[in-house]
Amino acid sequence: MEEKEISQAVIGRLPRYFRYLGELKDEGVERISSQDLSELMKVTASQIRQDFNNFGGFGQQGYGYNVEYLYDEIGKILGLNRRHNFIIVGAGNLGRALGNYMNFERRGFIFKGMFDRDPELVGKCVRGVEIMPMEKLNSFVRENDIDIAVLTIPKAGAEAAAEQLVQNGIKAIWNFAHVDLNVPEGIQVENVHLSDSLMKLSYNIDRYENEQAGK
Amino acid sequence: MEEKEISQAVIGRLPRYFRYLGELKDEGVERISSQDLSELMKVTASQIRQDFNNFGGFGQQGYGYNVEYLYDEIGKILGLNRRHNFIIVGAGNLGRALGNYMNFERRGFIFKGMFDRDPELVGKCVRGVEIMPMEKLNSFVRENDIDIAVLTIPKAGAEAAAEQLVQNGIKAIWNFAHVDLNVPEGIQVENVHLSDSLMKLSYNIDRYENEQAGK
Questions:
Q1: Residues B67 and B114 in one domain
Q2: Partner of B188 for a Cys bridge, out of A2, A66, A111, B172, CB 3.0 to 4.6 A?
Q3: Is residue A164 a part of any domain in this protein?
Q4: Given a cut of 90, is residue B180 above it in pLDDT?
């Protein structure tokens, strides 16, 4: 594949293609046209073609796309053919929910460790992984080839935890704390601000009601 | 405010402005220039001005923006000055994590009820809200002025639950199930596909490593 900068907007859409193609594959569908994929996914066919052209187009259009090939290729682009070890920092409900989510394993994300400052939680297990005290975080990250840290702790401790993780060689942070982290260049951060999407929902409820009321 | 269609991309950025302005307000900052806001939020000043121009611009630029006014106005646009009652369908770890999140209340989202099909969970409480059996869902939604349903159940049951909710008058679904829901026009859906953002992270780790390796 040629090296060129691909926009984060395009990258952000790849996982959804990957999900749909995985389902088509599971259903035994072998080929699909951009038109049919467009109807299924409710995006325009031209958007699909434009997105795919960033990666060379993925095969002839007249015949449609080969579902399995496309699924595999997008998986590779997303790095899902490689293993990424991850830990979860914060063993509250959200941390435990993510630890219990089996599908990550299928995608190559291997749950290796969990940390919490609460002595009540330390020693308990989530899906076979023991909750360890924060004091063990640094050495664990260094010694277990951990790529990704999932931050599910309150805002107050998040910056300090992120700094500690970076110093010990973490490559990426999946951040659920309600704060935008400052990390050095080269450290990947994906923020999940859950309430942001709830606010968007609230906006859309009101907008629709105002439209209906003719306001 | 004039009625015009504002893109979902702009709407999607409003909660982040709202978060930053809330913090500035808490710190006692009264005015901020688009330049300073730009540096703080790491977006261009022209992006900020463009976004705000969708809503009339929010005041003079030479003097900077009035933080509290801007915070309040964006809050109103997001519908946060209104109350929205919500229920959570699915009382697993993720559902409980969302039920326990106090900040929703501050934004006008009131946690009214929780439902699960597991008899072991029924009768237990999450932040004072009792977990009810699924059989009570329909009547509860109808009788308690519920706007929003949070779906934290597995994919298999999500479509059926969504249909049931829509039939009983729900206005919006905040969907954590790993499936894109088909709902009638006018029902707002916001999907949170958590693994999508993990895949994006994985892509960015690999891209950076390839760049560093000069590939």
A1: no
A2: B172
A3: yes
A4: no
